[in-house]
Design brief:
The protein is α+β, with helices and mostly antiparallel strands. The chain has 20 helices and 13 strands. The termini are far apart.
Length: 574
C-alpha cells in the first residue's frame, strides 16, 4: 500500500492493474513513462489506463493516447506550485505557509526601492507572482484602483489563509472534473461525486469541527461560555435546523397561496445532453462537451433569468422555492415549486417550456426529460408534502431511511452526504427562495423573545410575534404579502456602515458593514445583536491563550449570532 493510500485511507480497485491494461502498447520508453505517471496518481491510474487503451485501440496507434495522457498529467498539476491536485491537504497547507512569506519579502523589497507612492509598480510584481502559480490576483488591475484597494489586495496575497482557500478550491474542482471525464462519477461507480472527493469533504468537515471545538466564546455581559461547535449547532449550519426552517417556510408559502387562491406548479429543468458526462448506463456520453457542474449551473441560472424576464414582461408573478440537485454524474438540475394565479399558470408553464427547449431542441428525449411541469392537485396531497422528499434527500435524508434514491438506486440517507459534498465542492446553492419577504429579517427577529414596548414599533412587534411563533405565512402577510416588491417590503435587514456605527475592519484592513438588526420603513430600527463576545482558544494553562478581538458597537450594542434577547436602549427612532 502506498503512502497516498495510507494517508487518505482510500482503497484502490484491484480487478486488473493499470500496467496490465496497457500492456503491449507503445515502446519500451512509453511503458517506463506510463509507469511513472500511474505510480504518481494511484487513485486515478486504472481509469487513466482504461482511457489510454480505448484511445489507442480506436486510433490503432499509441501516439494519440500518449498525447492524451500527457494532457491529463498536465491537468493534474496544481498550477505551478510543484504539487498535484491529488496531493494530501497537508502539502497545500505547507505551500500556503511558505508562498506568502516569499511574496511579503518581495513586496517589502520593492516598497523600499520604489516607495509607497509607486504602489502600482509593487502591485504589478505581486500580480506576476500570483498568476505564475495559476491563481487570479484579488484585484482587477485593468481598471483604476486606489491605494487602499491595493493594500487590501497585497494583504490577501501575503496571508496563508487566502492561499489555502484558493488552492483547495482549484484542486478540488479540477480533480472532480477529471474524475467525471474519466467516468469515475456515475450511477454504476460513485454517484454525484467521486469517492476521493467524498473523502476530502469528510476530512474538511473533521478539520472544521476540530477548529470549532478548540475555540470558546464567552459572553462579556453574562459570563456564559460555550464552544463554537456548540453555538454552531444552534444555527442553520445544523442540518436539522436547516431542514426544519425550510419546511416551515415552504408550508407558510402554501398557506399564503391558499389564502389568495393561487395554484401550485412543480417544474423540473434539466441541462441539454452536451452537459452530461456519463449516461445512466455508466457509459461515457459521446455528446459531452466538457462542461463542469459550475458551468451547467451557470447555464440554468441564465435560462431562469430569461424565463423570469419574460414572465415579468407578461405580468406573471409567482413565489415559491427552487432546489438544485445533481444527476448521478454530478450535472445539476433544478426543481421549482411555484405558486401562480390560476388564470396565468398555464401561460407561465408554456413560456417555461419554450425557453427550456430553445437549445438543442430536436435532440432525442428533449421533450420528455429536459422540462417537466406537474400541476399540484390538493386532493392528492399538499405542495409542501410533495417537495418534502427533495428537501430531505438534499440535506440529511431524514425520514427516508428506507427510501431508494431514483437517480442512483441507493438508499437516500446514504446518498445525502454525497449530495452535500457535491454542493460544497462546486459552490452550488442548493435552496433558494423565490420572491416574498427576507429570511434574514425572520431570523433576526426570532432572536428577540421579549415584547417590544416602544409604541412607534407596534407594527414591528406584530411581525416579531409571528416570527417567534414560527408562523411564516403570517410573517409574509405582515411584511407586505407574498408578491410584495423588494422596495415595498416593510422591514429590511440593518447593515451599519462604520461611519454610522464603529470602525470595523476585516483581516485585510478593509472597512466593512455588519448585520446588526432590522429597520422598519417609516418607523425605526431595532438592534438585535446586543451582546459582546470574546473568542479565545481552549488550551492548557501552560500555553498562551490567544484571544480573537471581536470589535463591538458602542453603547452596549454589541453582537452575537446566538443572541435571543434585547435591550430597550437599543430601540431608537430612525
Amino acid at each position: 500500500m502506498t503512502a497516498f493510500q495510507i494517508i487518505n485511507n482510500l482503497p484502490i480497485p484491484q480487478q486488473s492493474t493499470p500496467l496490465s491494461i496497457v500492456e503491449g502498447l507503445g515502446t519500451f520508453e512509453c511503458d517506463k513513462w506510463r509507469t511513472r505517471i500511474f505510480a504518481r496518481h494511484p487513485w486515478f491510474s486504472r481509469a487513466m489506463a482504461n482511457e489510454y487503451r480505448r484511445i489507442a485501440d480506436s486510433e490503432n496507434n499509441h501516439v494519440p493516447a500518449n498525447r492524451w495522457l500527457t494532457s491529463i498529467e498536465q491537468r493534474l498539476k496544481l498550477g505551478r506550485t510543484g504539487l498535484f491536485i491529488d496531493c494530501h491537504d497537508s502539502e497545500i497547507v505547507t505551500y500556503s505557509d511558505l508562498k506568502p512569506k516569499k511574496i511579503h519579502g518581495l513586496v517589502a523589497g520593492y516598497s523600499a526601492a520604489y516607495g509607497p507612492g509607486h504602489y502600482k509598480k509593487i502591485i504589478k510584481h505581486a500580480v506576476n507572482e500570483v498568476q505564475r502559480v495559476g491563481l487570479t490576483f484579488p484585484l482587477d488591475t485593468t481598471t483604476d484602483y486606489t491605494f487602499d484597494e491595493a493594500i487590501a489586495a497585497l494583504a490577501r496575497v501575503c496571508n496563508p489563509t487566502w492561499w489555502r482557500r484558493q488552492l483547495r478550491v482549484i484542486a478540488a474542482r479540477e480533480l472532480e472534473q477529471i474524475c467525471r471525464e474519466l467516468g469515475m462519477v456515475s450511477k454504476t461507480k460513485a454517484p454525484y461525486v467521486s469517492d476521493y472527493t467524498l473523502r476530502r469533504r469528510h476530512d474538511q468537515k473533521r478539520r472544521n469541527t476540530m477548529l470549532l471545538e478548540s475555540l470558546e466564546a464567552e459572553n462579556c455581559d453574562t459570563g456564559y461560555k460555550a464552544s463554537l461547535a456548540e453555538i454552531s449547532e444552534k444555527t442553520v449550519s445544523n442540518p436539522v435546523n436547516r431542514r426544519n426552517e425550510l419546511m416551515v417556510r415552504m408550508r407558510g408559502f402554501e398557506e399564503c397561496a391558499t389564502a389568495i387562491g393561487f395554484t401550485a406548479r412543480f417544474f423540473t429543468l434539466t441541462c441539454p445532453s452536451s452537459y452530461h458526462a456519463t449516461l445512466h448506463s455508466g457509459v461515457k456520453n459521446p455528446k459531452y462537451a466538457g462542461a463542469t457542474p459550475s458551468e451547467a449551473q451557470a447555464y440554468l441560472c441564465e435560462l431562469w433569468a430569461r424565463i423570469r424576464a419574460k414572465w415579468q414582461r407578461q405580468g406573471i408573478r409567482c413565489f415559491g422555492f427552487r432546489i438544485a440537485e445533481p444527476h448521478h454524474d454530478g450535472t445539476p438540475h433544478w426543481h421549482l415549486l411555484l405558486f401562480f394565479a390560476p388564470d396565468i399558470a398555464d401561460q407561465a408553464g408554456n413560456i417555461f417550456r419554450e425557453y427550456a427547449l430553445k437549445q438543442d431542441t430536436h435532440e432525442p428525449g428533449a421533450m420528455k426529460y429536459r422540462c417537466e411541469i406537474i400541476p399540484i392537485d390538493p386532493a392528492k396531497g399538499t405542495a409542501s408534502g410533495y417537495i418534502a422528499k427533495y428537501v430531505s434527500k438534499n440535506i440529511d435524508g431524514y425520514g427516508m431511511e428506507n427510501a431508494i434514491d431514483d437517480e442512483t438506486g441507493k438508499f437516500t440517507h446514504q446518498t445525502a452526504q454525497r449530495v452535500e459534498a457535491w454542493a460544497s465542492t462546486w459552490g452550488i446553492r442548493q435552496f433558494q427562495q423565490i420572491g416574498t419577504a427576507s429570511v434574514t429579517v425572520w431570523r433576526e427577529l426570532r432572536r428577540i423573545r421579549e415584547p417590544l414596548e416602544n409604541r412607534s414599533l407596534e407594527d414591528l412587534e406584530q411581525i416579531r410575534k409571528a416570527c417567534d411563533a414560527g408562523d411564516w405565512a403570517l410573517f409574509v402577510d405582515l411584511m407586505g404579502g407574498p408578491l410584495v416588491n423588494r422596495e415595498n417590503v416593510k422591514v429590511r435587514p440593518l447593515h451599519l456602515h462604520p461611519a454610522d456605527h464603529q470602525k470595523a475592519e476585516n483581516q485585510y484592513g478593509e472597512l466593512c458593514t455588519q448585520l446588526m438588526g432590522v429597520i422598519m420603513r417609516g418607523a425605526g430600527h431595532l438592534i438585535t445583536r446586543i451582546h459582546s463576545w470574546k473568542i479565545q482558544r481552549l488550551t492548557d494553562e501552560a500555553e498562551d491563550n490567544t484571544e480573537l478581538d471581536f470589535r463591538a458597537p458602542p453603547d452596549g450594542a454589541t453582537w452575537t449570532c446566538v443572541n435571543n434577547c434585547t435591550d430597550r436602549d437599543t430601540i431608537s427612532k430612525q
